[in-house]
Specification:
By secondary structure, the protein is mainly α. It has one domain: Eukaryotic RPB6 RNA polymerase subunit (Alpha-Beta Complex). About 60% of the residues lie in helices and about 0% in strands. The protein contains 5 helices and no strands. Helix 2 packs across helix 3. It is globular and about 30 Å long.
């Protein structure tokens, strides 16, 4: 297998931590019996997830940004904030 430069892959997904998160999340899915998105001769979930990323079969969703937006829209004043305004 030809491996791309890790720096290039991390830039593709938005950073090395996101790259790690993506590989780990997909590997967990594969361990729980998700079907691979590629043809492979290995049963190692990390290798399969990495190969799927190399072939652009998987991508990272920005769930963190969506959660932050939801929390921000439902922001409730804390009792301390209410007292300071009075």
């Amino acid at each position: 297998m030809i491996y791309k430069n890790i720096d290039e892959l991390s830039k593709q997904v938005g950073g090395s931590l996101r790259l790690t998160t993506l590989i780990m999340s997909r590997a967990r899915q594969l361990v729980k019996r998700a079907s691979p998105l590629i043809e492979t001769d290995t049963d190692d979930p990390i290798r399969i997830a990495f190969s799927e990323l190399l072939q652009s079969k998987i991508k990272l969703n920005d769930v963190g940004e969506q959660v932050a937006k939801v929390l921000e829209s439902k922001k409730v004043e804390s009792p301390l904030e209410s007292e300071q305004k009075s």
